[in-house]
Amino acid sequence: MRVSIGSYNTPLSFVTPICSRPSGGCLISISSSSHSPPALRLSSFPGLRFCGGRKISVGARAGVNGASETTSFEPYLEEMDVVTFLDPPNYLIPLDPGSYNPAAYLWKKIEDIPEERRHRLLQLLNPRLISIAWEIAGTRYHDPKFVKKTDSNIRFNKDTAIPFHVYNCRTSGGPFLIAWLKFFKKTIFYGNNGKTYGRFSSGSIVVQFANQLCPFYFEVTEMKEVMSTEQPCDLAYEFGDGLFDLDEFPSGFPKPVKHPYPFSDEVVIYIRHIGPGVLVGQAWQEGKELDQVPQKLCGEILMVKEYNPLEN
Q: Cβ atoms within 10 A of the Cβ of 127, count?
């Protein structure tokens, strides 16, 4: 069998996949007793599953209480296309980088995934692939036309029917003080002062209680580049000291209080759009002192907008 990729014709010899490998704290196992070829090609028929009878089991440890949760599902070809593009098999000859824009291609592949299924990327993409997605998203700024393409739902006005937007997020965690920063939620809302704000929270019961005492609010601002690396970006989540002048916020949210360390030490998360409703961020602790060397707070963060049928 031959697979055509761009101007290349690559012969492929398919083998029944039976593998189990840990990667970035997430165990992904694929097994099958059939001899059907694995769906490692680019899909042409939307809605097809990743080969009948084959499932991917994802086990992930989330939260500071050490609780683990395992989910099992049959991924669709559109979802596996994203994984394959970020982590192609060795026997697939890559496209000539000069013949296409990788960020535009990744955007199209994410766009092909129905909105109600995009949350599966949080299980399918491990921290290493999330870092690769950040790098690929950087090629979007090489195209003057494509650089203007963004997720229009990030910034909105008071007339928006939905008062806030929720994203599910994943990263590789960080120092002990932010060990909970692995699987968490992000809420974006519009303030009555004309600015856009957000808040991070966790699903863990223990951390939920802590979140009420120390809510992690931030301000969403337009930003062209990461201060520490001078790499391009779209937005920045600036945590400041946490004492934002907010008179209105989503129901059930506590009032802003001063951030605990390290979030009080000039933490900024820089954002790149990689697809509709999907973002990737890079968190930096830039420090208050002039001679302080900025350092990354944690691994790159994948953010997927929570599906809300009322918005469609």
A: 21
Nearest to 125 by CA among 109, 149, 146: 109
Q: Is 97 exposed, middle or buried (0-12, 13-18, 19+ CB in 10 A)?
A: exposed
Structure tokens at 272: 């790149």
First to last CA, the chain: 41
User: How far, in Å, CA of 248 to CA of 235, rounded?
Assistant: 23
Q: Within a 13 Å sphere around the CA of 71, how many CA atoms are in the beta-carbon half?
A: 13
Q: Which amino acid is at 68?
A: S
φ/ψ of 210, rounded to 5, equals: -65, -35
Q: State whether CATH 3.30.70 applies to domain 148-311.
A: no
Taking a C-beta distance cutoff of 8 angstroms, is the pair 58, 26 a contact? yes
Does 49 score more than 50 pLDDT? Answer: no
Q: Look at the pTM and tell me if it is higher than 0.85.
A: no
List, for residues 256-299, the tens digit of each pLDDT value: 999 988 888 999 999 999 999 999 999 999 998 888 899 999 88
